[in-house]
Amino acid sequence: MGRRNFGQYCGLARALELVGERWALLIVRDLAVRPRRYTDLLDGLRGIPTSMLSTRLKELEQGGVIERRVAPAPRRGIVYALTPDGRGLEPAVLALGRWGTSRLGDPRQGDIVTPESLTMTMRAAFNPDAARRLNAAWEIHAADIVVHAVVTGGSLQAGTGPSPVGPDLTITFVSDDLPSFRALIQAAKCGLVKLSGRQKFLNTFVHTFTPRSPASPASEPDQA
Amino acid sequence: MGRRNFGQYCGLARALELVGERWALLIVRDLAVRPRRYTDLLDGLRGIPTSMLSTRLKELEQGGVIERRVAPAPRRGIVYALTPDGRGLEPAVLALGRWGTSRLGDPRQGDIVTPESLTMTMRAAFNPDAARRLNAAWEIHAADIVVHAVVTGGSLQAGTGPSPVGPDLTITFVSDDLPSFRALIQAAKCGLVKLSGRQKFLNTFVHTFTPRSPASPASEPDQA
DNA sequence: CCGAATCCGCAGTGATACTG
DNA sequence: CAGTATCACTGCGGATTCGG
Description:
The structure is a homodimer of 224-residue chains.
Chain A: H1 11-19, H2 24-33, E1 36-37, H3 38-44, H4 50-62, E2 66-70, E3 78-82, H5 84-87, H6 90-102, H7 115-125, E4 135-142, E5 145-152, E6 155-160, E7 169-173, H8 181-190, E8 193-197, H9 201-208
Parallel strand pairs in A: 4-7
Antiparallel strand pairs in A: 1-3, 2-3, 4-5, 5-6, 7-8
Helix pairs in contact in A: 2-7, 6-7
The structure holds a DNA duplex (20 and 20 nucleotides).
């Protein structure tokens, strides 16, 4: 049994061998938003050593989770993207993120929020039941971060940057606090946000991104 | 920023700080099946150093994921169990397990299967849609492992040991191969299993534990 | 037997500097 | 922009030992 091998024929053990190393799932998180370059990833993963990033990228490529691509015309170079298999990790990443979000507490000194973490937090918070038969587009501005969420026929497209379609409502987070999704929802509930567009979409936003509580229809453990 | 701190105000980052260390999620997997003692955990986690297990148990307790309990009468001592917060990890563990299962390939030399990994694999493979309006109980025997699955009103109770209710069907895996869930399903499809009980429940078993394919209703990434 | 603590050697990690 | 190189440090794996 090699060092990073658990020696068990088990899906969880295999998953942890492939993406269980430090930083790996945060790289997957950022790439789940969109393909990114090496230096983009460095920016979004505060404190990761450059050597570690390049090691992880090689391991993830080897493991079939990501792939290197040659970037198209305007700014050439290399971009990293999830493979189809890698995209299959998104449900697991969102599930872990939901659990962690419930245990977040208050921001710690020095904590940051990135456009990618904010986008994935929105995807994790998305409530498909509340979004049935809904068509809406929001654009969120918080500090220097811009993200968007577009709901079409009950399914969500969330990403960084301005909305690809004209947003129904633009929400600007005006507090000096960390521009976390939690703080944004709080501010929205209290009306402490600047709005531009169809204001009734504010309430829809809050409900669309309040996750249904039990999080899963999975079986209950027979805990004594 | 401490060593195991990612410095991001993000649910995924927080989750990885709490359960991202080596072995931690495998401990959670085993405790999700039922509370276990220190030595039970050692048995189920092949190759974990004793010092590491005790360190992880302390960290997980500190993080509010597990708790120590004094075991009841017959065999006293200490048992470890998931807290309610810890039980909230199950959807994430199952999602990661599903992804890993899809990338398992063939068993490697020396791989083992434990009752706990088999139980969690069954929970991960469970298809609620196929189990609507179903009531059934199976007992699985494979090598020296016994596990059970009881479906009542569309929801699953899966655990180790004999079925708590009289099983409709007992399935015995007779091959010399590793008694993995995958091999069991294969064998069941080919009729290479010994049956005892109502044989028509074999087909029901296969369909109930074939997961629906896309695995999640979550949003698609806007991959270029 | 259960439930660890201790010790050692090495591999993975973090910080900084440097290169094509 | 996209990484390597170096080096100190800490976490991990393996074995042994120790107290209830």
